[in-house]
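Collaborator request, handled under Task 6.
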Amino acid sequence: MADIIRLLPDHVANQIAAGEVVQRPSSVVKELMENAIDAGATDIQLIIKDGGKTLIQVVDNGKGMSGTDARLSFERHATSKIQKAEDLFNLNTKGFRGEALASIAAIAHVEMLTKTEDDDIGTKIKIEGSKIVSQEVVVAPKGTSMLVKNLFFNIPARRNFLKSDQVEYRHITDEFHRISLAHPQVAFSFYNNGSDVFQLPANDFRKRIVHIFGRKTDEKLVPVEEETQVVKISGYILKPEFAKKSRGEQFFFANNRFIKSPYLHHAILGAFEGVIRPGTHPGYFLNLEVDPGTIDINIHPTKTEVKFDDEHTLYAMLKSTVKHSLGQFNVVPALDFDQDQNLDTPYSYKNKQVGIPQVVVDSSFNPFETTEKQSKGNISGGNYKKPKVEGWENLYAGLETKVESNVSHLEFESEVVNSSIFDDEKETVEQSTTTFQLRKKFIITTIKSGMVVINQSRAHQRVLYEKFLKNITIKEAVSQQLLFPLTLSFSPGEMNILSEIKDSLCTVGFVFGELNDDGVEIKGVPVLVVESEVQMIMEQLMSDFKQEVPGDSFSQSDMLAKTLAKTLSVKTGESLDEFSQVKLVNDLFACKETTLSPFNKKVYVTITENDIERKFI
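Structure tokens returned to the collaborator:
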């Protein structure tokens, strides 16, 4: 039998390695910016076009590379960070594997322009698909400029799996946020399709957070500071009242490296337990400084998943530190046992004897006596004169003394029922259908062959979804004007999302005022939306569009209708009156699709009479 095991060619091995390191354009941005930071740069520029698919350029003023180092940096496992195996357990830099540039060069057109401070001239290298096209000597400033064009040009299948430009742009923005927050001492610039997105000067951590997420964020931050032998914790948490339904503003940094740790995130949730609304998530920006030998960052190519030696101790310290900060800055509501100062006894009364209060009564006072006698017996000795009351009977002359009582029919005001989820008049619905609500979750109604059990939340989602989708399509939504316009604050990234979906929101019934960098003014809302729920609805919209971010207009309208239907639908646990139950059943079966909710979940099940009879066999 012939041998069948062969070594892979270098270009194939590089493409396989690129699949682990470079998953999308944001992966390239992460690797190039981390290399710039490792090079000691104090000013880094990021330039992208078409969501990073066409162009990604990172320019830094770091120490640069010589001609030989520039050529060698594109070889696999070529690194200046590791010399022996023990160095893996004492890592203080970002990149150390030597895979990033080789992987990027295998699936894109790459141009490098670099020069050290000591050299008079720089080096320019062009690589296409791991093949060096040219290397020449050029005039260049100190530092390195990496230009990556036509990502996945030689792997069409991978390129087809990329999302729209807006999706990839948001992933790049998230990566830019993570790196710029981890290094506030470095100035960053971000340009997208020729427009200026961020200009972040070198500053402290708090001001860097404010520059990225808006000026309103400054008043939301609560400092966190704790230093022990195991870990040094520093950073900020957001006040509990600013907890959101999305998980956007949650950042962990371990030794100036962004990490993802569900275990430590659970510690934060435990510290916030009882002070935030259910279903909301706290925001935090926390730096953890630990001994490099107690952390393993080499368990995943992206280096965002890490392993701590003593996670249990770190968990307890993090939870207690956050709780301490919440209590120290009077963020957590507490019972106030302070006494009222008006009730305190003065110190001069310390040795004073308690006197028994006495009441003086004039036993001779008679209101029906003459004025002269009354004035004599007046306690105060004043000249008070009682007015004369003769002839008071004439006030009631001519009035009937007979009182007729006619209480054969009394009507009492009925108690207001707020459980109706529809605005139509009850008289317009023929309540011939018999319904019953089970466990405040299901609506049971009868049909000829048996009965139908309907999930009330999913059924209402289907009704609202088709209604909102129709309004978006025909653009005839009804809006209710607000007496006092609402002003909501959002981060710059959320404002970009809002500007994209603003037209679709207007077709649903929202009326917007001014849009600026700090927030938006809302003057009107759809009829079904309660004013107190507008903030929650907008946060849910931001969260959904960040996660899925549709590309074309139809998908955007569909996403908007789904989010509004999910947010405004009646929830499990809400009690519905008989009218609302009947109306919901009728409206459900008037929909084009009745069996599935907008999220492809079953709405109802049918139980026939035969099914019931089988249970008694």
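The cover message to the collaborator said: "The chain has three domains: 10-200, 205-328, 426-606. The two ends are 65 Å apart (CA to CA). Please let us know whether this matches your experimental observations."
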